Amino acid sequence: MTQRRVTIKQVAAEAGVSITTVSHVLNDVPGKRVHPETRTRVREAAARLGYAPNVLAQSLRTQRSNTIGLVGDEIATTPFAGKIILGAQDVALSRDAVVFVVNTGYQRDLESRGIDELLRRQVDGILYATMYHRQVELPPQLAAVPTVLINASCTTSGVPWVVPDEVSGGEDAADVLLAAGHRRLAFINDVDEIPAAFGREEGFRRRLTAAGIRDDDVRVVTAETDPAGGYEAARELLTGDKPPTGIFCFSDRVAMGVYRAAAELGLRIPDDLSVVGFDNQEFIAEGLHPGLTTIELRHYDMGAWAAEQLFERIEAPAGTRAAAPTARLRGPVIHRASVAPPPAAHEPQRRRNLA
Amino acid sequence: MTQRRVTIKQVAAEAGVSITTVSHVLNDVPGKRVHPETRTRVREAAARLGYAPNVLAQSLRTQRSNTIGLVGDEIATTPFAGKIILGAQDVALSRDAVVFVVNTGYQRDLESRGIDELLRRQVDGILYATMYHRQVELPPQLAAVPTVLINASCTTSGVPWVVPDEVSGGEDAADVLLAAGHRRLAFINDVDEIPAAFGREEGFRRRLTAAGIRDDDVRVVTAETDPAGGYEAARELLTGDKPPTGIFCFSDRVAMGVYRAAAELGLRIPDDLSVVGFDNQEFIAEGLHPGLTTIELRHYDMGAWAAEQLFERIEAPAGTRAAAPTARLRGPVIHRASVAPPPAAHEPQRRRNLA
DNA sequence: TTGTAAGCGTTATCAG
DNA sequence: CTGATAACGCTTACAA
Q1: Is B206 exposed, middle or buried (0-12, 13-18, 19+ CB in 10 A)?
Q2: Residue A49's Cα: distance from chain center in Å?
Q3: Rounded Cα gap, residues B315 and B101, in angstroms
Q4: Residues 8-67, chain B: which have Cβ under 7 A from strand D?
Q5: Closest CA to A292 of A253, A240, A348, A332
Q6: Under an 8 A CB cutoff, do B86 and A65 touch?
Q7: Nearest chain B Cα distance for residue A63, angstroms
Q8: How far apart are CA B101 and CA A92, in angstroms?
Q9: Could you tell me which of B229, B273, B270, B271 has the C-alpha nearest to residue B252?
Q10: Cα(A71)–Cα(A108) distance, rounded to whole angstroms?
């Protein structure tokens, strides 16, 4: 089936030179002067035969495989994750590299086996990604290879990482609502105590305080991050006294539940209630009606940034260990149709906020 | 950074034998009798040093890399696709193989480059997947390697493929609605003329006819497969005369639009209107309220089936080319809460259908 | 039972 | 300017 691919030897024969020469010209080895004529002769022979070097052989010799691994807990099984793969793949391919992906599903043994399998294939480096932003402990085997974390940070020094900028996400959500004139607000936060929960709340509160919103005009409740959780939380929020006119949701899925609660209570979005989500999860943010204004999570960019860093470290001369760079990516707010001025907004007040 | 990994030579030295012997025992080469004592000596040496063979070197020698490629148009960027990766990866890993993934984004040149890059790395075979079920023309380079198609079929003979069983999907949807007692039905089909559209309609109609539903009691309309499309179609369907009491949607996203239309028209699901979707797309089917009854697309299984077939072909002795197997996977119906008896159902009629 | 050596397809060193 | 040849780390005839 697999007819043997053409090798450098065949090219050499075809061109009537030695394989050394072929290697020289095809790799443009610096300092090796080759007669222009031989050069073209070799080039033509290679083209004629459709020669492409065997990367395995190259790797064995050069100790560089031009191959990286992407291992993650749910890297393949969540809608976001794919974007990470894509970002990583795009920068990899731009350098003629390819990426292995290993989905561990939180199984320690699978992770370990997967990484070993990659190492045995001499990957040049590994991208280690988590589905939700958190702190991780690096698998010990990764100490041996250049590694970059995606959507996670770790205490091991010398390992670059990139995560979403949760705080500014919270700030931006607050700003969107404030700019529309809202003065009574709520945040339906995640029940889990994770960086995203802390960060977003911090940013959200900070901006409200700065805008002079009184503490008892901002409510922060927690819920499961799914439609059911959002529904429950929103019902409680909206049926209490002094209900918020604007709700910031920990995720678009939560917002989905808020939409339902609002509909049941006869509240129209955005006329009676404004809502902003988080994630910009395709099919949800876009599919809801009216379209959900939300903060985007830049998974593609995280994947790309990480791959970029990884290659940088791979290519850096052995000793040259620069301090590990880290990045917090601020996601843009995606304006759709779920935010409007509050129903009873006082003109002067609104104008002040817009200024 | 990357301290050199331990090689077979070191193990040989540690055990005081030749590398040949090490290879023999570690690979359990049949027909090679090695003294039990040396055997354990080697094993222990290997373990002590933490030796793991370099797969690149092995591959170069054996012409088998234990590595496969998964290339697809949107293999990493859609919620379904991840499951395909996972299915493929799981069977790969169970054979100590790893998978490269390449997302082509429908760009021919990217696809070509990606595949070349894989071939240069001597992948043993390639899984070629498409996001939506369709016919494809195989990239010419794939003629050289074992290949299996996922979610796609092709005319090239000798290439195994696996696709969803669209027809039975349509049948099952019809059955669910019929069993609940519905007699006036509609199908919101995809505007695009693709296998899924033909197949599902065929199955759906067949069962209705078999159940004695009159032709003018079943309406089939087409729409864009997104919430907006579903909304428009549903509005038209539901505001016409003799509106259907049960709607089968081409996709869960379409169903999402149907939910909205129903809500606007004051129709309660499932009391006034039953709906069944297609895909069982996580976060949508589950997140809608009431939960959407839908037909599952078995992406994980398609990935796994394909990988299984691929390895079978890779391992088959050169000449042994069995006819290419193909499979249509029938997805289970996921019962949730969007289907109930029609509002004005006549008892006798319903009972008859349940029988 | 164990070891020598050739070879997988390259790159890199060193002579010519 | 060009070409032998040794390595990269491993498997596998073939010898001993």
Answers
A1: middle
A2: 41
A3: 21
A4: 8-9, 19-20, 23-24, 26-27, 29, 51, 53-54, 57-58, 60-62
A5: A253
A6: no
A7: 10
A8: 12
A9: B229
A10: 12
Query: Measured CA to C1', what is the nucleotide nearest B39?
Result: C1
Cβ A81 vs Cβ A299: under 8 Å: yes
Contact A156, A138 (CB under 8 A): yes
Cβ atoms of B173 and B248 within 8 Å: the answer is yes
- Can you tell me which residue has its alpha carbon closest to the C1' of nucleotide D9? B57
Please check whether residue B152 is in contact with residue B161, taking contact to mean a CB–CB distance below 8 angstroms. yes
Cis peptide before A243 (omega within 30 of 0): no
Which stretch of DSSP H or E encloses residue B128?
strand B125-136
Place of tokens 């099952």: B172
State whether A227 and B120 contact (CB < 8 Å): no
Contact A97, B33 (CB under 8 A): no
* Strand D bases with any atom < 7 A from protein Cβ: 1-5, 7-13
> Which residue of chain A has the CA closest to B144?
A2
Contact between A164 and A328 under an 8 Å Cβ cutoff? The reply is yes
Length of chain A measured in residues: 355
Cβ neighbors of A310 (< 8 A, separation 6 or more) are A68, A124, A125, A126, A127, A146, A147, A148
**Contact: A145, B78; criterion CB under 8 Å:** no
- Contact in structure between B254 and B225 (CB atoms under 8 Å): yes
Peptide bond between residue A290 and the one before it cis (omega within 30 degrees of 0): yes
Q: How far is the CA of B348 from the C1' of C12 (A)?
A: 88
Q: What is the pLDDT along chain B (355 residues), one digit of tens a residue?
A: 445 689 999 999 999 999 999 999 999 988 778 888 999 999 999 999 999 999 999 999 999 999 999 999 998 788 788 899 999 999 999 999 999 999 999 999 999 999 999 999 999 999 999 999 999 999 999 998 999 999 999 988 889 999 999 999 999 999 999 999 999 999 999 999 999 999 999 999 999 999 999 999 999 999 999 999 999 999 999 999 999 999 999 999 999 999 999 999 999 999 999 999 999 998 899 999 999 999 999 999 999 999 999 999 999 865 666 789 999 999 999 999 999 999 974 444 333 333 3
End-to-end CA distance of chain A: 71
Structure tokens at A148: 């970059």
Tell me the shortest Cα–Cα distance from B320 to chain A, in angstroms: 10
pTM for the full predicted model: 0.93
Residues 21-40 of A with CB under 8 A from B: none
Torsion sign (Cα): A46, A50, A52, A57:
negative
> Residue type at A246?
G
Q: Are B105 and A93 in contact (CB under 8 A)?
A: no
Beta-ladder partners of B127: B70, B148
CA nearest neighbour of A327 among A307, A350, A347: A307
Beta strands B185-190 and A326-329: pairing type?
unpaired
Domains of chain B and CATH, by start: 8-53 (1.10.260.40), 67-159+299-330 (3.40.50.2300), 166-292+336-354 (3.40.50.2300)
**Spatial distance from the CA of A20 to the C1' of D4 (Å):** 9
Among partner residues A52, A82, A283, which is closest to B116 by beta-carbon distance?
A: A52
DSSP code of residue B269 = T
